Protein 1
Amino acid sequence: MQGTIISVDKVPAVIGEMFSTITLALAPIAERNKVILISPMANSKKISSAGDYIFRIYPNNALESKKLVELAFSLNLTKGAILYMNNDFGTDLGQSVNQDFAQNGGTVTISDGYNPDATDFRTQLTKIKAKNPNVIFLIGYPNDMAMILKQAKEMGIKSQFIAPDTFNEPEIIRLSGNASEGVIFVYPPNGDPQLWQEFNQKIKSKYGADANIITGMAYDTVYLLAAAMKSNGTTSDEIKAGLYQIKDYPGVTGNITIDKNGDVSSRELIPQIVRGGKFMDYKAKELSHIS
């Protein structure tokens, strides 16, 4: 990034990265060179304090943690375990869930991590099974979560699994088979139905497939930058000022307001569940346990 995009191309703004770990690695370079870095999908809460030139439009881990814990309490699941990927995304969200769950009256019996390249999770699952939790917060990426669910079923683990937005990948169902049945997770809904339908038609006509939330977030990121440039100018400092002024921008993923940390100020996260090998809206009890 520093060697070409900044020093050679001298761009005022960069879109990306999608993942928190890479975003956090790029952030000091962007901040030092006063180049806007805006991520469509990274959600680590560390990004909120990564710098004045660092932005993202995806909900941060603090919000997601609250929703995951709300789900558990809505089902009267108060004895928990946390199994997380040992990277910036996983450890960050795992710590938030641990704190939120305990602060609201739950008991975290065990919190254990695994390496991103791991394929055998039986050691961690054996320790979790011995604690007999009624809920397991599973925090990872699609391939590893699918393998964990498959191995957990083979080991006879009956706990309710609750997962973050990274679970919303059909490949999980294919890889895990019916081991993913009943898993509940949270995910941002599409925005205004008409705007989303128009956007989806454009994507489908060009690429032959429906848009998803990742496509939508990337699309909104591009047009959010354009809006900031149109209102304030095209230098990095002008774009930065323009982004901080964004209020209720009508994106295809919903209205966007940028707060003082460069975060989107609010995003809805709705619960979904795997039923009959498909992702479906989850109609839970009123999720109001946590203020």
Protein 2
Amino acid sequence: MVQPKNSDKGKIMNSKNLDLSKSKIQINRNTSLIIGILFFFLGIFDFCLNNFLGTNITSFLPRFINFFTPLIFGVIGLHFIRIEFSGIKILDSLNKNINPSNFNAVLSLCIIFLIIFALPPLLNWFIFDANIAGDTKEACTGGGACWVYIKVWFNRFMYGMYPNAEQWRINVTFIAVLGFMAAGFFTPAKFRNYLSLYYTLILPIISFILIYYLISGGSFGLEWVETGAWGGLSLTFIVAFFSLIFCFPIGMMLALGRRSDLPIVKYSSLSFIEFWRGVPLITVLFMSAVMFPMFLPDGTYVDKLIRVVVAITLFEAAYTAEVIRGGLQALPRGQYDAAKSLGMGYWKLHIFVILPQALKLVIPGIANTFLALVKDTPLIFVVGLLEVVGMLNLAKTNPKWLGFSMEGYVFAGIIFWIICYSMSKYLSLIHI
């Protein structure tokens, strides 16, 4: 019978010891996880009892102590759960994001407790006690939100004072514009290099023609509707759309001009940027709507909506220029020297080498500027253009619907959140 060598015995013993240590680590990890979960949910349970049932499971302790017992239980639980490289993907992700330290554990618990405290009354007001059925103020008999108010005024919130019989023209226009915007995604590969020209030049022209002939009317047998009757969310989209399209190329030219070696170009761009950044937007809108027509020759008229779009465009172009300039300054000098060594001129260098890299660096900043532009559109209410928030301010003064402004502002907040969140996610995908 062959006896195992001493070295083989040692390997076997080491293997057994290793398996035993792994087993002990796994048992300790599972025990710590179970204890942590129990303490965490005990803290949540204690907080819920305190707030909703008025019961305190630690009432035998002094008041200044049992007030903090939910937080103490929760911190103890998160401390036991904080296992480094547990092998459980969800647990590791939670520990990394909300439970990396005791301080972050306290902050996370405070947020959780705040949500638990605020969510039930919010849901009661928003959904469970809300009134949806009916067409008059008298239908709102509960203690929750009166969504009847939104339902009755919904048409005005979307289209303003635009005639009801002609609102199909706005729908057709926006569907057509969205179709032309989506066409870029289906462009054949050989035409992809021309998409920038399409989105910055051709699409704005097409959109302007559609809006002028369909929404304004006056041609092809369509009734003329003055811009003073435009309003609601449709007007918000129109102002934001054209301002976004035009402010970006203007801002890009201003950013390049501010970095130019030509003194006239440099200081002209600098003066423009600093002037527009130094005045509030509400002042700019007031000047464009009230003061600017006074300087026009007799018989010359520029529509108020066009003046407002131009004012917002120039205002936001100054901020866009500074964001793009930050990207230009972030590029190393070697990029310029390498492009020049290939014989590239100024425009070719910037179009094919510098700007693509600079714009990629500042996409988050550009997104922030664009989101601010969309959220600034309600300011056009001060010059008499009733976009969605302007219509809300008009509706809340209606004698039949006094006292329901909260529902209107919640509705507007949800709309703007959806718009801004969609833009943010889209731009973040571009960034990736």
Protein 3
Amino acid sequence: MINLKNEFIYAGYLTSLGCPAFVLTVAILLNTAIDWPVLAIAYLTPLIVYSYNYYEELEKDAATNPERASHLRKKVGLYPFILGAYTLILALLLVFFANIYMIIFVLILLFCGIFYTILFKDLTKQIPGFKGIYIAAVWALAGAFFFNFHYSLEWDIFSVLMFLFIFLRGIINVTFFDIKDIVSDSSQGLKTLPVIWGKKRTLKFLKALNIFGFLPLLIGVYLRIMPVFALSLVVFYFYDYYYLKKAKAVNSRGLRMVSYTLADAEFILWPIVLILSK
């Protein structure tokens, strides 16, 4: 059971649930049914990206994420086969269930995710905060527009507001994760917000962003673009406030566990809260 728990947390399975959770959130707010292949594609796309990135940065992770590195080393020889299996399943799903626009969109997401490690990561050495903005933007693109590409829907104000909402909440998540990597990111010359501001100031910034992050929802409800029950997601202000406050008092190991569990689990809870409130 411990191995299963570690596999779920450290191998990207938990984090990857965020993308299908975004797609479900959009479907619930639009009061539209959704097909299971869309959710499967939305899950496998980030799973491939995270699996590849974890594999490529395994040695670097040993210093900042020792629990994850220790677990992943046990199956390092299997990684090429695991990635191959994920890619084959995703390819079959795209061939049988996706249109050409969806296929192109997924390929762009894979490119953005995988090539961040290969090409774009160095930009964080020149552009302060680039990593958080880049990753949150890719999340927001996937979450807000997966639905549009699969069902050939028009891009409207609803999609833009959902993009902004996911983007702002995503910056909180990504920046919070960067706090545990301050030492390694600093040694690599990466100008993440925690490296520039330090842990204390970064947490203050995230607490402020946690308030303003719900503005897209408020605007959507005010303009009657979103249903009123969308405001139930405001409950995650308290959720984020709790783990941001908890992060001040925990040690390095505790901070990593808060990141891998509480922070990563937030997005999975969005559709559950919406269904209950609806």
